[in-house]
Write a structure and sequence with these properties.
62% helix, three-stranded antiparallel sheet, 9 strands, single chain, four-stranded mixed sheet, 520 residues
Length: 520
């Protein structure tokens, strides 16, 4: 690579970094903790030894389920040891990880012969893809994108070994793949991608598709074998000797088609468009004039770079098997395949479980890059418009996560003066807040408000429940209806309506019904 090419490459990577960072950084300092974050933070802080090893030992003692993903046993305690209860460092870590994912995609595409401008466009699109915002802003989910990053680097190393480089590349790929898969398994089936890429290489070089199948399978067997060993551990050893499987298994072909259909909608079709539309509506309601001005400047700059840098002609070499659409299909299918047999998850974009779209979004980015590379003026402009829409959706998403956290803190600050002296056992029922804003939860469950209340007030005697539509006031006790029914004693029960600031002692059915009537 000569100096001119190296300079061009550096500029393209700078564009990728800037695009991902601009997409992330809107209101980043106002984004905080949500849902599962709270019980984990409280539990980690209770470890007798506040060293990474001490926190890890306490975590697995209290929650044996972590053995399903043993990578988390080391990673999350270390993360908490560094960052503690400070939210911004988690967000910066997520930003760095997503820039790393974009870099890894760029290097993977470039290494397979994709033109650098197209590889950079795909990398930027992957960093801005808006259908999995939970992986950007949910602190306890840091391990999911880190696992994908590790898996992508494993694929890069494995492809280097397949192309004849030293055996240490194979060892490096094994270590990276095992760490990524045992941290979060969503990208595990990408282990099949080197087989597909090697098969395509052989076909491009003149082998018949049939002749290329067996050599390609043999070249991919080492990584497939490692995946098999991990599957035996996760689906065999752990359920048998540690704890039972947490997720019900589906063997319905209809569920497979449901996952694929929903995934297509979330990646390139109606649900993605609906999400962008909802994001634009939220931005219209909540953005200030300066917010819109900054977005216009960022979108215009991005458009300028994309349109000026676009290919001015169709690719000169006709590929037998066009790489970008095929790689897009590979990421899409292998990204959703882990959910084919999981009855609890289907792709969504309107809730925090949209993390299931994370791997497949790389496929969407490859398809967009293929469109961008068609060498026509309208495709460049359309591609730039798509990324500008992604940027707006990312900013709107960040605003929703930030607003959700502001709501949480405001509710607890309003409640503090009403609680009286600390140390008295009280159970607080919360009313008047939305469960979520977009994908960002406010207070949605027993455990998030319960722990946030104790952490926010410093009073360990308090407990909290989200009351709205979930508490039934009866003659002898109240009953919380939330994944089953739990009794709530009237002896220490209080209710708080956030919008009005109404706080009341609930000592019986009549008091509860009166509180609800006044809080409508």
């Amino acid at each position: 690579m000569n100096e001119s090419e190296a300079q061009s490459r550096r500029l393209l990577l700078a564009f990728v970094s800037l695009a991902v960072a601009v997409g992330f950084c809107f209101r980043l300092n106002s984004i905080g903790f949500y849902n599962d974050d709270y019980p984990w933070l409280e539990m980690w802080s209770q470890a007798p030894s506040q060293t990474p090893w001490g926190i890890a030992a306490y975590w697995v003692k209290e929650h044996a389920a972590q053995w399903f993903r043993p990578g988390t046993i080391l990673f999350h305690p270390l993360e908490f040891w560094f960052f503690g209860f400070h939210a911004v460092p988690y967000q910066l870590a997520l930003l760095a990880i997503h820039i790393g994912i974009s870099y890894a995609l760029f290097h993977l595409l470039e290494g397979e012969g994709v033109e650098r401008r197209l590889a950079a466009f795909a990398a930027a699109a992957a960093g801005l893809y808006p259908n999995h915002d939970a992986t950007r802003h949910w602190a306890c989910l840091t391990g999911a994108p880190l696992a994908l990053l590790s898996t992508l680097w494993a694929l890069l190393a494995y492809r280097s070994w397949q192309k004849g480089k030293g055996a240490w590349w194979l060892a490096l790929s094994f270590v990276s793949f095992a760490f990524g898969t045992l941290l979060y398994e969503a990208g595990a089936l990408l282990a099949a991608l080197p087989i597909c890429l090697d098969w395509r290489d052989r076909v491009e070089k003149g082998a018949s598709p049939k002749e290329a199948i067996l050599p390609s399978i043999l070249s991919g067997l080492p990584l497939i074998g490692l995946l098999g060993a991990i599957v035996v551990y996760q689906r065999g050893y752990v359920p048998r000797y540690v704890m039972t499987e947490r997720h019900p298994v589906s063997l319905s072909p209809a569920h497979v088609f449901k996952v694929l259909g929903s995934g297509l909608e979330c990646t390139i079709a109606n649900r993605l468009l609906h999400y962008i539309g909802r994001s634009a509506a939220y931005a219209w309601r909540s953005f200030t004039f300066s917010d819109w001005a900054l977005w216009l400047i960022a979108a215009a700059g991005m458009t300028k770079v994309i349109v000026v840098g676009a290919p001015d002609r169709a690719p000169e070499k006709a590929e037998k098997l066009p790489l970008l659409p095929l790689l897009g299909l590979g990421f899409f299918l292998l990204g959703y395949a882990p959910y084919f047999f999981d009855a609890t998850y289907t792709p969504v974009v309107f809730a925090q479980v949209n993390r299931v779209n994370m791997v497949a979004s790389l496929g969407g980015a490859c398809w967009l890059a293929w469109l961008y590379g068609r060498g026509r003026n309208w495709t460049a402009k359309a591609s730039a418009a798509i990324l500008a829409a992604f940027l707006l959706a990312s900013w709107s998403s960040s605003a929703q996560w930030a607003d959700a956290y502001v709501m949480q803190k405001s509710a607890i600050e309003k409640l503090k003066p009403k609680l009286g002296a600390p140390g008295e056992a009280k159970t607080i029922l919360l009313y008047g807040l939305p469960d979520s804003l977009g994908s960002a939860t406010v207070f949605q469950s027993t455990y998030d408000f319960d722990v946030a209340l104790r952490l926010g007030t410093g009073d360990k005697a308090l407990s909290g429940r989200v009351g709205q539509d979930r508490v039934r006031f009866e003659d002898k006790q109240a009953t919380l209806v939330w994944f089953g029914e739990s009794p709530l004693s009237y002896a220490s029960l209080y209710a708080f309506h956030v919008p009005s600031g109404r706080f009341a002692r609930i000592d019986g059915r009549a008091a509860g019904e009166r509180f609800l009537a006044l809080s409508k």
